[in-house]
Amino acid sequence: MARVFITRSLPFPAVAELAERHDVDVWEGELPPPPDQLRARAADADALLTMVTDRVDAALFDAAPNLRVVANLAVGSDNIDLDEARRRGIPVGVTPGVLTEATADLAFALILAAARRLPQAAEAVRRGEWRTWEPAGFLGLELHGATLAVVGAGRIGQAVARRARAFGMEVIEVRSADPLEPALERADVVSLHTPLTPQTRHLIDAAALRRMKPTAILVNTARGGVVDQDALIEALHAGTIAAAALDVTDPEPLPADHPLLRAPNVLVVPHIGSATGRTRARMAEMAVANIEAGLAGEPLPHPV
Ligand code: GLV
Q: For atom 3 of ligand 1, which residue has the closest CA?
């Protein structure tokens, strides 16, 4: 029986089945294990099932000498030091594909919410400010005929592009080799779908924001670090762009008193791109399959 440490409670059938086959230890907290606790609990683990909230680095690998596989419950892997894992011959698995549609749905929900100013309109109703039908109240952006720049045209980006075309939008897909600026200049909505790498960190900086239209909306369901958040806050205050809708921030969680939340026309949700019951259950299945393969010394079915 191998020893598996899971860094959060995962109420999904695949994990219950894993516990029938192996000695599974589950972190009991609602918050992620602090790094020292993670190291202590991983000390005798053969396999780790980690979340995007866990930093998997050299110190953790040092603390877990028996480790044979890391399965991240995410499509992204920027929480893991992959060079260090490779150096030590520890395979790392992720959960691609199964969260594409759920994440694209969330990106599109953010696009619609920001375009039609849903947070502001709902808040006005809650404050008792709905006095009459307003001929020029809450005027938003009509998506039909508008232009969407999809920055990072991988699986999720293309799923967002498909939704946009069905809404009658013109879509510009920006791949890593393509110049970003012309797309930023033309787009009414810019939606980010790149992984976070040294090349994409602060891809959307002050200069990029200045290229965007003053009426444009920035949507980020990728990683907070892809946007220079200080520059974004300034751009929202200055009216350089019209609005931002974000599922990811830097840092996460975003403190309730963070200046980003005081910027005008910003909508922030707490990293819920893949948060549907079906998707999370399928992510757990893939993570468990990665663990079983890693423990058996076989190639992972879903390697990073
Ligand atoms: C979530 O952000 C993921 O990478 O799956």
A: 74
Instruction: Tell me how far apart the alpha carbons of residues 189 and 210 are, in angstroms, rounded to a whole number.
Output: 14
239 CA to middle of ligand 1, Å?
A: 30
CA dist., res. 251 & res. 210, Å (int): 23
- The protein residue whose alpha carbon is closest to atom 4 in ligand 1 is 76
By residue range, what is the domain housing residue 93? 3-98+277-295
Has residue 301 been placed in a domain? no
Domain total in the chain: 2
Are both 261 and 285 inside the same structural domain?
A: no
Report the alpha-carbon distance of residue 43 to residue 262 in Å, rounded.
Answer: 42
Give ligand 1 pocket residues (Cβ under 6 A): 52, 74-76, 99, 273-274
Say yes or no: 256 and 191 in one domain. Answer: yes
Predicted pLDDT at 66: 98
Residue 114 structure tokens: 């920001």
Q: Are residues 160 and 180 in the same domain?
A: yes
Mean residue pLDDT across the chain: 98
Give the burial string for 264-301 (b: 16+ CB within 10 Å, else e). Answer: ebbbbbebebbebeebbbbbbbbbbbbbbbbbeeeebe
Indicate whether 32 belongs to any domain. Answer: yes
- What is the pTM for the complete model shown? 0.96
Query: Which tens digit of pLDDT belongs to each residue from 280-303?
Result: 999 999 999 999 999 999 999 999
What count of residues does the chain have? 304
Cα dihedral sign for 130, 136, 140, 144?
Answer: positive
Asked if residue 253 has a cis previous peptide bond (ω within 30° of 0), the answer is yes
94 and 182 both lie in a single domain: no
CA 222 to centroid of ligand 1, rounded, Å: 8
CA-77 nearest atom, ligand 1: 4
